[in-house]
């Protein structure tokens, strides 16, 4: 059984997936990590990106400068569409390969663009980490040390809170502290174990 875990930027997806992995031993596939793998030096996707945007999107090490690329694609929606068209199929292949190797009772596919990219169709259930948009803004601006306007641009490129919640089978609220978050995850883990074993809830 595959659970799709999503939420907007700054919602706390990492804290949720980490607790599933560390406390409960669940196999986690993170689409963000896969998106880094497909643009590693020597990979065809990185060559295509440099061909389109020039060396300005490279660090001196030859690795992708993600901040520089983000600036370009979020100031021009057409460039973002082009980049997603290049990367989404490659990321999907990496995800499928990793999920196939899972040995835990169920696996988690963590993706900020689970709904937008159609990755939710690869899952059996969708779990949304939900927070207010004000909390998203505050957490992300503090964490990434970026201007509020850039955070707003990223949020606008993601599904709206309402759109994500429409796809949710399960919801974790992350407007409280870490203990409250872990308690919700622990309860969901028990529910998912029952579902994975074929029990109805």
Automatic annotation (TrEMBL):
Can you tell me which residues bind ATP?
10-15
- CDD domains listed in its UniProt record: DPCK
Q: What is its EC number?
A: 2.7.1.24
Q: Name one GO molecular function term.
A: kinase activity
Q: Indicate the principal place this protein occupies in or around the cell.
A: cytoplasm
Q: Which domain of life is it from?
A: Bacteria
Q: PROSITE patterns recorded for this chain?
A: DPCK
Report the catalytic activity: 3'-dephospho-CoA + ATP = ADP + CoA + H(+)
Instruction: Look at the named UniProt entry and state the broad enzyme category this protein falls under.
Output: transferase
Keywords assigned by UniProt, alphabetized? ATP-binding, Coenzyme A biosynthesis, Cytoplasm, Kinase, Nucleotide-binding, Transferase
UniProt pathway annotation: Cofactor biosynthesis; coenzyme A biosynthesis; CoA from (R)-pantothenate: step 5/5
Coiled coil spans: none
* Family annotation (SUPFAM superfamilies): P-loop containing nucleoside triphosphate hydrolases
Q: Which family does it belong to?
A: Belongs to the CoaE family.
Q: State the NCBIfam families in the record.
A: dephospho-CoA kinase
* HAMAP family per the UniProt record, alphabetical: Dephospho_CoA_kinase
Q: Which PANTHER family match?
A: BIFUNCTIONAL COENZYME A SYNTHASE-RELATED, DEPHOSPHO-COA KINASE-RELATED
| Purpose of the protein | Catalyzes the phosphorylation of the 3'-hydroxyl group of dephosphocoenzyme A to form coenzyme A.
| Protein name (database record) | Dephospho-CoA kinase
Name the lineage: Bacteria, Pseudomonadati, Pseudomonadota, Gammaproteobacteria, Pseudomonadales
Q: Coding gene?
A: coaE
């Amino acid at each position: 059984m595959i659970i799709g875990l999503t939420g907007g930027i700054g919602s706390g997806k990492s804290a949720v997936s980490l607790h599933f992995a560390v406390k409960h031993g669940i196999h986690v596939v993170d689409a963000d990590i896969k998106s880094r793998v497909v643009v590693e030096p020597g990979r065809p996707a990185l060559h295509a990106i440099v061909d389109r945007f020039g060396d300005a999107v490279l660090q001196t090490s030859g690795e992708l400068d993600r901040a520089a690329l983000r600036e370009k694609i979020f100031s021009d929606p057409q460039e973002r569409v082009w980049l997603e068209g290049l990367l989404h199929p490659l990321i999907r292949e990496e995800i499928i390969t990793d999920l196939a190797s899972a040995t835990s009772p169920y696996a988690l596919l963590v993706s900020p663009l689970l709904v937008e990219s159609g990755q939710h169709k690869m899952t059996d259930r969708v779990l949304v980490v939900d927070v207010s948009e004000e909390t998203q803004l505050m957490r992300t601006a503090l964490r990434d040390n970026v201007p509020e306007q850039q955070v707003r641009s990223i949020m606008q490129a993601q599904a709206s809170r309402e759109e994500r919640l429409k796809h949710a089978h399960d919801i974790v609220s992350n407007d409280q502290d870490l203990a409250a978050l872990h308690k919700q995850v622990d309860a969901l883990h028990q529910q998912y174990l029952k579902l994975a074993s074929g029990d109805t809830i």
